Description:
Two copies of one chain form a homodimer. The first copy, chain A, has eleven helices and eleven strands. Chain A is globular, with a radius of gyration of 21 Å. By secondary structure, chain A is α+β, with helices and mostly antiparallel strands. In chain A, the strands form two sheets. In chain A, strands 7-9-6-10-8-11 form a six-stranded mixed sheet. In chain A, helix 2 packs parallel to helix 3 (99-116). Chain A has helices spanning 9-17, 62-79, 99-116, 167-176, 182-187, 190-201, 210-216, 227-237, 253-261, 266-271, 287-294, and strands at residues 32-35, 41-51, 83-94, 120-128, 133-143, 158-162, 217-223, 240-245, 277-282, 299-307, 313-315. In chain A, 34% of the residues lie in helices and 25% in strands. Chain A starts with 8 loop residues before the first helix and ends in a 17-residue tail after the last strand. The longest helix of chain A is centred in the N-terminal third of the chain and has 18 residues, at 62-79. The first copy, chain A, has two domains: 9-143, CATH 3.30.1330.10; 158-315, Alpha-Beta Complex (Phosphoribosyl-aminoimidazole Synthetase, Chain A, domain 2). In chain A, helix 3 (99-116) links the parallel strand 3 and strand 4 (120-128). The interface between A and B is large, with 67 and 67 residues. Strand 1 (32-35) of chain A pairs antiparallel with strand 2 (41-51) of chain B.
Amino acid sequence: MNSKPRPSEDEIIANFFAPLAGRAGLGLRDDAALLDVPADCELVVSTDVLTSGVHFFADDPPELIARKALRANLSDLAAKAAEPRGFLLGLALPGDWTEEWLAAFTKGLAEDVACFDCPLIGGDTVRSLGALSLSITIFGAVPKGKMVPRPGIEDGDLLYVTGTIGDAALGLRLRRALASDRVWAETLSQPARDYLLMRHFLPLPRLALRDALRGFARAAMDVSDGLLGDLDKMLALSGMNAEIALADIPLSKATRQALACDASLIEPILTGGDDYEVICAVAPGDAAAFEREAGTLPVTRIGIAKTGADKPRIRDGEGRPLAVSAGSYRHF
Amino acid sequence: MNSKPRPSEDEIIANFFAPLAGRAGLGLRDDAALLDVPADCELVVSTDVLTSGVHFFADDPPELIARKALRANLSDLAAKAAEPRGFLLGLALPGDWTEEWLAAFTKGLAEDVACFDCPLIGGDTVRSLGALSLSITIFGAVPKGKMVPRPGIEDGDLLYVTGTIGDAALGLRLRRALASDRVWAETLSQPARDYLLMRHFLPLPRLALRDALRGFARAAMDVSDGLLGDLDKMLALSGMNAEIALADIPLSKATRQALACDASLIEPILTGGDDYEVICAVAPGDAAAFEREAGTLPVTRIGIAKTGADKPRIRDGEGRPLAVSAGSYRHF
Lengths: 332, 332
């Protein structure tokens, strides 16, 4: 009856995406974008694919789906000490997409494009016979030779993590509202619940760690699939392991409250993923300078790297190794 | 019973994708890749998303799905006169994927990685609750200021197209094997049918046009959504139109045979898409040099650009404008 024709891909680009385009995007009128990399810089590139039902729920607010997708990619740049330069957006829209959905999605994206000064420089919008999926490819610049690698940790290096761990995993639990989580969920105050939900929906890419990483980190990665698994992955590349005291892992007040009510939450906290914090290794002699350079961004020393092929171990207050079954959350 | 556990994302990377990685891919052990762009070059970037049932059939040979996806992206670089430097692969695998499928997909990809000297430098592999989708982001280098834009056509410029038009659209018809196509399909020889199918499955990115484009083209784009629609899109950006004689549009022998049997095929030939040829505009004074520089790569002059806002028109042998309903194939 009152159905109007769906906008074409060209109309979607002109009406929704062109306002987000930077100069490199050539007004999004070409299939290609042109990236001018400063002569003394290298380009860091990262890509993430997110699919409905796996990485987000179909009925999540579109603004937040957009912002989380971009922030997850910004977090990859943050861990490499790179400065955002722009991104490409690939969008596969299911048959029942609406202009309202896309307008909200674009509005969320626009907020973070402005917030992180990271323009849209190109993309592709196609039809999906299945669910919504989106892919973001992000570009960052780093002075030549200054990208912080993932391997390269040496025996005795101190391991640091930014922010707090486990909030997003508990936020996801609150989002799913399973009966099994009702007890601890109901002991939390509304602000504590909101905080955890916010940490699930809106990661904080730690771009502010850039100078501290460039100056003093030997290796770094972002924690996206759970602290324990990602730590293992990073240490193994250098033939290292580590012993970590549970008490040293930074937890937010809300997460500590939840854990006090239900001790089994330690597993999702350590392995649940979506933290988007940065872990890095710093030589002991550089620790003071690293902490100083991190400034107001909270960084916490959680352990020391040791040569060895076995997995990093976490010990509780009595010195007993913690048994955690799943190493990391598998999006796959 | 004899089901073995599915490989994890890390195992997929190590077993399937790492052998395709170039130096910039850091062994695919990091979430990020490092692109070192030569100091006198700019980076051209393009991305395509392909979804099962829309851009390919779920039961297409995996080798060919992989190769076509990469070649479609290489074609974007070809139209910008850029040299391939590497690509990122985003893969969302449905629940029923098999290692055999992925091995074949990777084998096809490996062939074209070698053939076009375009290494895999990173990516992301995730689970899809819906159908298979893949996204490729490709990187090419072009000397500073030498990227051929899409706008910029001037009144009187000659319009050229590489290769032949319509083969892939007819190949798709053969692939679908609809009853309505039986008559013309059966008049074709087996080699002619194979040729059209091959043109559907394996585009030929026209990277060899690079020097001719850099030297003499004012504007260019690749024909991926149908000659007529893409020509219209390119000309409109410069406020131009064109008159084109049907007889001047280069058709392969197989396509001419099919058209002789069924005149209505002119519509898919001109609007069907997936040609992956390059259209470009050349100033009349540069035409001879452009053709010389194109060398053995066939380029055909199909018309002259004229100032004007109406759509480009194609005239048949009697000078009558051809009525074609759909301007271009919409993947969306």
